[in-house]
Amino acid sequence: MKQSIKIAKTLIEALPYIKKFNSKTIVVKFGGSIGSKDFSSFSKDIVLMKLVGINPVVVHGGGPEISNELKSKKIKSNFINGMRITCNKTMKIVEKVLGGKVNKKIVKEISINGGMPIGLTGRDNNLIIAKKIKLSNKDQDLGRVGEITKINKNYINKLIKTNYIPIIAPIGYDQNGLSYNINADYAASKVASAINAERLIILTNVSGIKDKKNKLISSLRKKRVNYLIDQGVIEKGMVPKVKCLIDALTDGVKKTHIIDGTVKNAIILEMFTDSGIGTEILL
């Protein structure tokens, strides 16, 4: 009986959040660092969101899987400022892993749990138009790494209205049909901004943003985030992730979150409980 009462209290606690987010669109970025073992828990969260009237859109990464595939093919992985140098051979692997392996796994798990997922890359209905990134240092070249010039928001919104759950691999294409490798955090930020999402949630393998004493910061304002970056409190790989969240806020997304996706039902805990589990960032 005590366990049943506890479950009932949890459901009641979630009620105002379910009401608040009803008919709203939430973009969720599933990081490759989380690992495929968590597809099932993640997929159940996404399906539950859809069933209670929320419109989830998933953008996923797959960096570790790409690195493993490249290693098996004896192709060396090189990076500039955290971005993978992508030659033609590497790009074929990127398309195979992101557009095929990872995307299909997420689609399969969501389908198994009762959702209606649709796997997408930038090629579908010109979903992601991109161009080659040119670095300020002309002696450096990232190859086929792209920046987004346009998101086909109408296509995403059409899928949402017909009850599909878009699962987007961050591969963009230029006007000539050439494919580009795109950072998944950046792609999620651009998608969220384009469709005026209520929330952008980045799932990664850390608990969130921490202060100098290594204590989790549950809520931050944009100005404070910039200060923490300047002070070196937010550092290394967390910096580009946080900057993507700030860009989304600047472009109209209401609130952003970074949470530990290795925690089971992480999205539900962050969105539907009073305490949450990660860091939220507001303007």
Architecture overview:
This protein has one domain (24-206, 256-272): Carbamate kinase (3-Layer(aba) Sandwich), CATH 3.40.1160.10. The chain has 9 helices and 14 strands. The chain has helices at 2-21, 39-51, 63-72, 88-112, 153-161, 184-194, 222-230, 238-250, 266-272; strands at residues 25-30, 55-60, 79-80, 83-84, 117-120, 128-132, 146-151, 165-168, 171-173, 179-181, 199-204, 219-221, 255-260, 279-282. The strands form 4 sheets. It has an 8-stranded mixed sheet with strand order 5-8-2-1-11-13-14-12, with helices on both faces. It is globular.
Summarize the structure.
The chain is of the alpha/beta class and 283 residues long. It is 41% helix and 21% strand.
Primary descriptors:
Carbamate kinase; eight-stranded mixed beta sheet; two-stranded antiparallel sheet; alpha/beta; 9 helices; 283 residues; 21% strand
Total number of strands: 14
Number of helices: 9
Given the helix and strand composition, which structural class is it? alpha/beta
CATH architecture: 3-Layer(aba) Sandwich
Largest sheet: 8 strands, mixed
3D shape:
globular
Helix content: 40-55%
- What is the H/E order? HEHEHEEHEEEHEEEHEEHHEHE
CATH-defined superfamily? Acetylglutamate kinase-like
Q: What oligomeric arrangement do these chains adopt?
A: single chain
Sequence of strands across the biggest β-sheet: 5-8-2-1-11-13-14-12
Termini separation: 43 Å
Query: What ranges have pLDDT less than 50 throughout 5 or more consecutive residues?
Result: none
Please indicate the percent range of residues in DSSP E strands (runs of 2 or more).
15-25%
Mean pLDDT: 91
Say what the CATH topology is: Carbamate kinase
